[in-house]
Design goal:
Chain lengths: 160, 682
């Protein structure tokens, strides 16, 4: 259960410098997604997940995080991407959400922490057809790359 | 004075006093002349009044004041206890309860004056106390002086004060009661009182001040005030310093005997006899202490109130310790147990954690008395409301349950009792026709049964009319007539727990609103308990509520199914059997086995858990026989791991849909294992 320092960036320093929102950038397949750092409790390495029967397929099971039992979901399956292949880079991001409590989310890789100013964030118009865009609330631009910013409550919401 | 910090204590104590009053008034109704009860009631009412006054709840104080007046008349024997008086008193208690719950929610007592109740009380006072009123006039002087001078005797001790005083006494210090009367002509009463207070404080430690120090400072007292002090000095020394303050009329003091009956044998006169009191103090104190122990009234349990959150923290720590112990155990067994010393240490640790767990659990345990003590009163009210004669017999009130369970169990039990009173018992005429005693009986029995606590609600009424239930169910569309024909009697009775089902022909405000038994069942199941009914038409019914003793740590059987580890609570497990595949029979296309005369359905856990079993179909099956109520079932598993003490962790609300999993636990190797709810499988 090693906790990782994300790219060695001193977070508090960043906070003082900008009045911007910080995001943890993760990779899922070839795309980059941003998770608002205020919801992130912890990032842990992939570990044994205990399967829970009779639940939605994206719920992979539960893990033991320092004595607490935390449900873990696969972001890939939730977003209807090909199933996860666990590698050395695979991480579980532990999110603390007001509505849903603590949830772990499996991602392919954690890249870095970025701070995005308001002008670097563009809201996306809602497109009801594409399931995947439902989870994206905005797109951030950072050093010429695009980062889809995840709407975590939508991610955690149960599938109908 | 900032009273907020005392609010919790106030609420707790008020509730205790109200419970006590309820119980005592019930006794009073049966035995109107019982002096002990009357004294007890008077004391409780007086404390209530004092507490409400201190906290600034004026309406509550006013009501209790009038109640106290009534009790005082009863105590003096000038007023007889009548049924309508008891009714009014109960209404007063209800009103007080309302105040209390208002205070609990909003820290304000509300605006209901309950003037009507106060008026009623005063009428009783006028009617009953006519003789009494003359008494003080006849002998005004002596009475006033003798009684009022020893007001410290009337001080009501709180729990904490009692502890302090007892502690002081055991340390060999002297406990004195003092009453100081300020001269009527005194202009600055508060200042004089303050000087006395200061003077006494130099010689002794003031434990109780009545009225409170703040009130004295604000001049909110008549001419006298009383103190309870702990001191190494002699009584005379203390009396002397108070007398040195000018404009003090009289000072009375003596050794204070707490727990002693108000009309103590020694009639301590003021100053002169104070000396003899000092002289006789060492001798008199010893026998009194004995009196206290052997006296008729049980000495209140010495308790410490602990915030439940602090207990939870302690509980969590114990849980962690047990997990750590489990990992040590698994580490030692995986390393092949190098060295016996290591193993011995682990065994030692194991016994320590088990003991620690037990004692922490015990701290969380409270007797169900706090819940059931309000039931006799409720049955009395129901008896009047329904115009049926009935008696409630309770046993096992001392049975203990986890605090969280006790807090939740009140409503379901109340519902079952109401049900028994309303639906169960027949009216008096019918009972007489059937040759039963006119007064119906309802029993509430609680007892511990292994890891469970069983609470039975039994009545000797009509019992459940299975046909009526069936017809009703068909009428309500709960079942079809065909289904009804195929159902066993037991299944039909269980329909009572179906939502939206009520067989009461008339809807009364006692029961029969169609929300009830299903809620009762849901509530009990949410506490990991279960409820069942047994009934004999014409002879009565029994509702059996079974609750687990604790909710946090259980003994479990660890099993492996398809390579995954699961825990099954040991509580429901009967036996473990080795069954050859040839013994499996098919009944109505379901697999069953024949075991010692009973046919037991098999449940293949691999199928229920959506996983492939690791065993080939020819191998013998390992079957865990579990029991739910009267029903048995065999759970087919792959492998047994053994028995283990496990800490139950919630799966969280995010994964709550899986009914057959009741929680999770963390094993010694840090892995999570799920806990199977055998009850949900059957």
């Amino acid at each position: 259960m090693d906790e990782l320092k994300v790219s060695g960036i001193n977070i508090s320093e960043l906070k003082a410098e900008y009045d911007a929102v910080q995001y943890i950038v993760i990779k899922l397949g070839n795309e980059q997604y941003g998770i608002d750092i205020k919801f992130v409790d912890n990032i842990v390495r992939m570990q044994h997940i205990t399967r829970v029967p009779k639940v939605a397929d994206y719920l992979k099971g539960v893990i033991n995080l320092r004595g607490e039992v935390i449900p873990v979901m696969s972001l890939r399956i939730k977003m209807e991407l090909p199933a996860d292949e666990y590698t050395k880079a695979t991480r579980i991001i532990i999110l603390k959400l007001e509505q849903h409590g603590t949830i772990g989310v499996i991602v392919d890789e954690v890249k870095e922490v970025v701070a995005l100013d308001e002008e670097e964030i563009e809201k996306v118009s809602y497109d009801g057809k594409d399931d995947r865009t439902n989870f994206v609330s905005a797109v951030g631009k950072h050093e010429g790359e695009l980062i889809s910013l995840l709407d975590l409550n939508a991610v955690a919401m149960e599938n109908k | 004075m900032d009273v907020n910090q005392y609010l919790e204590i106030f609420l707790d104590e008020t509730k205790e006093h109200l419970e006590n009053l309820n119980a005592q008034i019930l006794i009073l109704e049966q035995e109107p002349e019982n002096a002990d009860t009357i004294n007890e009631i008077f004391r409780a009412a007086h404390s209530l009044k004092g507490m409400a006054g201190t906290m600034g709840y004026k309406r509550m104080q006013a009501l209790t004041h009038d109640m106290e007046n009534v009790f005082s008349e009863i105590r003096n024997g000038t007023m007889k206890v009548k049924s309508n008086l008891i009714d009014t008193l109960f209404q007063c208690l209800d009103a007080l309860e309302e105040y209390t719950s208002n205070i609990q929610e909003t820290a304000d007592e509300g605006t209901n004056d309950n003037q009507q109740l106060i008026d009623q009380l005063n009428q009783f006072l006028k009617a009953g106390g006519a003789v009494e009123e003359k008494k003080p006039v006849e002998a005004p002087k002596e009475a006033a002086e003798d009684v009022s001078i020893e007001k410290w005797k009337d001080i009501k001790l709180g729990e904490s004060e009692r502890v302090v005083l007892s502690a002081a006494k055991t340390q060999g210090k002297n406990v004195y009661g003092l009453t100081v009367v300020v001269q009527e002509s005194c202009l600055l009463k508060a200042a004089r009182a303050f000087l006395v207070y200061k003077a006494v404080e130099e010689k002794a430690e003031i434990i109780v001040c009545n009225p409170p120090a703040q009130d004295i400072e604000d001049e909110r007292f008549d001419l006298d005030f009383s103190l309870l002090v702990v001191s190494d000095c002699s009584l005379e020394e203390i009396l002397q310093v108070t007398r040195n303050v000018s404009e003090i009329d009289k000072v009375a003091g003596a050794v204070y005997e707490f727990e002693a009956v108000p009309e103590g044998e020694k009639n301590v006169e003021q100053q002169s006899s104070a000396k003899t009191a000092v002289a006789t103090q060492p001798q008199s104190a010893a026998p009194k202490a004995n009196d206290k122990k052997t006296g008729g009234k049980p000495v209140a349990n010495r308790t410490v109130r602990v915030d439940i959150e602090k207990l939870d923290v302690l509980m969590n720590l114990v849980s962690e310790l047990i997990i750590a112990k489990n990992s040590l155990v698994s580490a030692s067994s995986s390393e092949g147990g190098s060295g016996t010393g290591f193993k011995e240490q682990i065994e030692y640790l194991e016994s320590v954690t088990t003991n620690l767990h037990e004692s922490v659990m015990k701290v969380r345990m409270v007797p169900i008395e706090s819940v059931v003590s309000k039931f006799p009163r409720m049955i009395r009210d129901l008896s009047k409301k329904l115009d049926k004669k009935m008696e409630l017999y309770m046993s096992g009130e001392e049975t203990e349950l986890d605090r969280t369970v006790v807090d939740e169990i009140g409503d379901p039990l109340m519902h079952l009792l109401r049900n028994a009173a309303d639906h169960g018992l027949e009216s008096s005429e019918v009972r007489l026709q059937r040759g039963k005693p006119e007064v119906g009986s309802i029993f509430l029995d609680a007892y511990q049964d292994g890891n469970n606590v069983v609470i039975e609600v039994r009545d000797d009424g009509n019992g459940i009319d299975v046909e009526a239930v069936k017809n009703k169910a068909i009428e309500r569309g709960v079942i079809t007539p065909e289904q009804g024909d195929n159902m066993s009697e037991k299944d039909i009775i269980n329909l009572l727990f179906h939502a939206g089902f009520s067989t009461a022909k008339q809807i009364s405000d006692v029961s029969g609103r169609g929300v009830g038994l299903d809620v009762v069942k849901a509530k009990i199941e949410s506490l990991s308990g279960e409820v069942e009914v047994k009934s004999q038409l014409g002879e009565g019914s029994t509702w059996i509520v079974r609750l687990p003793l604790t909710l946090a740590i259980i003994q479990a059987l660890m099993v492996i199914v398809g390579g995954e580890k699961y825990a099954i609570s040991l509580g429901g497990i009967q036996t473990i059997e080795d069954i050859s595949p040839s013994e499996i029979k098919l009944v109505q296309n379901r697999e069953v086995i024949h075991l010692r005369g009973s046919v037991i359905p098999l449940i293949r856990l691999s199928k229920e858990l959506d996983i492939e079993s690791c065993k080939s179909p020819e191998d013998n099956l390992v079957v865990v026989i579990v029991k739910k109520g009267e029903k048995l079932a065999g759970l087919v598993i792959d492998e047994l791991m053994g028995q283990q003490e496990i800490v139950i962790k919630s799966l969280g609300k995010y994964i709550s849909k899986c009914k057959i999993i009741s929680g999770a636990t963390i094993l010694g190797d840090g892995e999570v294992a799920l806990i199977l709810d055998a009850n949900a499988l059957i």
